[in-house]
Recover the amino acids of this structure.
C-alpha cells in the first residue's frame, strides 16, 4: 500500500501525489497519469500494482490546481464533473506536475510515464516535451489526435480500443502513419477497457495490455 505525499512544482504549487514503493531495489521510476476521475481508488490500485512489479510508482493529483482531493465515480455525474475539471486544467500545468513527480522518484533511476484516458494524452505530451522521460505508455488518450504534429523523444507504447467511441480509428491510423517508431496496439474493446470499475472493462484486453506495458517498461527503464 502506498501513501500520499506533497509535491512542490517549478511554479511553486503544492499538489498531492500517491506514492508506492517496491519491496526491493526499484526497476525504475514510473509516473502514473490519472483519468478524468482523479487519483481515485482505481488509480491508487494501479500505482500499488506497478510498485508490486518493482517500480517506484507515483500518481500526481493533476486536478489539484483546480480542485483538491478529487475522487470521482464512474457514472454520468462523475464523467460530467471530470470533463469540466479537465477543461480547466491545462496540459502545460499537467506537465509541470509530471516533472515534479519525476523528481520525487528520480532516485529509482530511469523514469517512465504511463497514463490512461486524459492521462494518456498527458503521457504522449510528456514524451514529446519533458526532458528525462525514458519511456512512455499511453492508454486511449483522447487528445493524442491533436498532438500528432509533436514527435515523442523517447520510446512510446500506445493502447487503443477499436470500439472506443471517443477515439475514431482514423486517428489511430494517423498515429501509425505519422509516428512509425511508436508501438501501436489495438484491442477488441472500448474506452476505459483497463479499469475494472467501469462497465467497459475488458479483462482479456487489460491483461494483455498490462503485460505488454510491463515488458516495454522493463526493456526501457532497466
Amino acid at each position: 500500500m502506498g501513501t500520499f505525499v506533497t509535491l512542490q512544482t517549478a511554479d511553486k504549487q503544492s499538489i498531492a501525489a500517491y506514492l508506492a514503493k517496491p519491496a526491493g531495489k526499484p526497476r525504475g521510476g514510473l509516473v502514473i497519469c490519472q483519468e478524468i476521475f482523479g487519483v481515485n481508488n482505481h488509480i491508487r490500485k494501479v500505482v500499488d500494482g506497478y510498485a508490486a512489479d518493482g517500480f517506484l510508482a507515483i500518481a500526481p493529483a493533476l486536478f489539484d490546481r483546480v480542485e483538491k482531493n478529487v475522487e470521482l465515480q464512474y457514472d454520468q455525474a462523475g464523467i460530467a464533473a471530470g470533463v469540466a475539471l479537465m477543461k480547466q486544467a491545462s496540459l502545460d500545468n499537467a506537465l509541470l506536475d509530471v516533472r515534479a513527480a519525476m523528481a520525487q522518484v528520480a532516485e529509482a533511476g530511469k523514469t517512465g510515464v504511463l497514463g490512461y484516458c486524459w492521462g494518456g494524452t498527458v503521457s504522449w505530451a510528456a514524451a514529446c516535451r519533458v526532458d528525462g522521460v525514458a519511456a512512455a505508455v499511453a492508454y486511449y488518450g483522447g487528445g493524442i489526435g491533436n498532438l500528432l504534429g509533436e514527435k515523442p523523444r523517447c520510446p512510446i507504447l500506445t493502447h487503443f480500443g477499436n470500439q472506443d467511441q471517443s477515439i475514431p480509428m482514423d486517428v489511430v491510423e494517423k498515429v501509425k502513419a505519422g509516428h512509425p517508431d511508436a508501438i501501436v496496439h489495438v484491442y477488441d474493446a472500448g474506452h476505459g477497457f483497463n479499469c475494472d470499475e467501469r462497465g467497459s472493462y475488458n479483462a482479456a484486453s487489460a491483461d494483455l495490455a498490462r503485460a505488454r506495458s510491463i515488458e516495454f517498461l522493463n526493456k526501457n527503464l532497466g
Notes: The beta strands are 3-8, 14-20, 28-33, 55-60, 111-116, 133-139, 156-161, 183-187.
